## 1
Amino acid sequence: MSAAYDELLRRCRPLDPVVTAVAFPCEQTALTSVVEAAEARLITPILVGPREQIRQVAAKASLNIDAYPIEQADDAVSSAIKAVAIVRAGGAEALMKGSLHTDELMSAIVPSATGLRTGRRISHAFVMALATYPKPLIVTDGAINIAPTLEDKRDICQNAIDLAHSLGRAQPKVAILSAVETVTTKIPSTIDAAALCKMADRGQITGALLDGPLAMDNAISAEAARTKGIISAVAGDADILVAPDLEAGNILAKQLTFLANADAAGLVLGARVPIILTSRADSVQSRMASCGVALLVAHARRRGDVGASAA
């Protein structure tokens, strides 16, 4: 993994591990990542799922899980519901996806009466480290909000800004992405970008510098911005990339992962607690990086550095 990954673990080292409810860790990679994250003192896991199945997976993978409690649940759906209930009851400060489908976990998270929603829109962010960029990039939202409204994008921005604060960025630079740098009714995302920047001017989005619309090249390349005559404190130096919709965000994140060999950690934000949302294709180290990010967010919440709705 990269120097950014090493720096993430260095920031986590002095912190107490965060108690984490792990929903349905019934596959070798999922359970291995839980054990390794626990051994690295990133999380203290509560395993939630079919007890015998979890033990069989552990035995087959030669994993010692004797130190971790297992809360019995018969299947993936009931595991998600029980893991969320543990968090709601104060038994854990983070939630982690095991080997169940994302929609099964999210179905337990989103109900107002029994889930983990707050007054803020739930969104997803990737924290990505690339050899070709001098600092980690937060890419949002490529996993949850399919066609976000302007109000949704406000929360998506604020969630990502609060995450950046947890990672040590005092005033992150937010690039609102589109295909062009000028505002035009022909491309609605450019209008949203301009509105978001004005919302930041009016204090509706706080704690960051925003600019947009910006095309991808201008967001991350100072030379490209200069060539196009863009004068901006954000252009060429972005900390956060806000995609216009889920398709663009998902494609961007996967391009960076599979074509640029980026290391990626994934987290769901805007819920009562940080939610570690990993992909079945993620490596154990990527899953551990996600646990590290969740640990930093949980400790920032304890200190009051971010609001309860900004997990």
## 2
Amino acid sequence: MRKCDVAIIGLGLMGSAALYELARRGCDVLGFDPLQLGEARGSSHGSCRIFRRFNFESTAYTALSDRAFAGWQRLQEETGQTVLLPSPILEAGPPGCELVAQSRAAALAANSPLTGPRNGREANAAYPAFALPDDWDVVVHDSGGILLAEAAIRALRAKAQARIIQAAARIEPVPAGIRIVTASEEIMAAQVIVSAGPWITNLVPGLTPHLTVTRQPVGWFRPARPESVRHGALPIFIIEAARGMIYGFPDFEGRGVKAAQHDHGPVVGADSWDPPASDAELELASTTLAELIPGAAGPLTERDICLYTNTARADVRVDAGNEFIIDRLPQDRRVIVASPCSGHGAKFATAIGAMLADMVGDPNLTALDPFRLDRFSGFA
């Protein structure tokens, strides 16, 4: 039977980043994924994700963002490929908006001065596509970017193509190692990283009570004022509107403005990529653009579906849920679980890939506290 030191099941951004990092460290690693790159499935599919240095979810993410940014820069230098386009990020909401307050707090905690617009009136003057209420709270960060997701995966895999097996795989722990079983072969691995996105519970059933998958419609809109929404004129935006939160990108591809609701959609199965996003599902994004970013508003030209894989609230070390899982299985420490799929994990991929490689190399290395499995009583 063929053997390897590490097998990675799932080669989206997280799995590909781990493959890249382990390969560059000289590890005998193999990666498994049945999906063709460019397929409209998987947590990392599509052209772009948001990179944020400062995260309203937690000030603790800033250090992870900084490690990831260094990783994206190194990847660009090593491959000569652009994977991160600089772009400011504008976050806005009604007076007293918690989103803006927490994002400001994250920047201030890192001693990062904030010099951009602080209210709707100033934002409208700086970015003509917007029509925010004058008294709205606004924060603009210059340290953001557009992560080119598919290009990043290609760059991460560039020097490891011979290590990739395009096949679905299941894992069977045995005393000699972790048996990796595909339709055509079996391979024995000493350790395995499971980074299978919404399909992760098929491989690690014990995670089922702690994870839900939600359907997230995404649309591209033909802008009313194209010159006001091009890359360089319109920032990435995250808006806490009355009916929900939306996010979006400037028109950096010539496809229009990409926008979507960030609030969780309906709970679905891991294979629920169809039907395409409907007009009704994209109505909130459409009406929010028309009301608050009229330069970006217009008819839908393309649509897509993303899936978020969300954690439930922890019950041992209490958290609010929607946090990552990056940890060893306590019942079999040869298995490392990587599930940072809650809608904002992509930007951290290079940092998480390095973290996973560190865990492979040091069996005594413990996961970061917020990401540990023992916060759930089922794994405590």
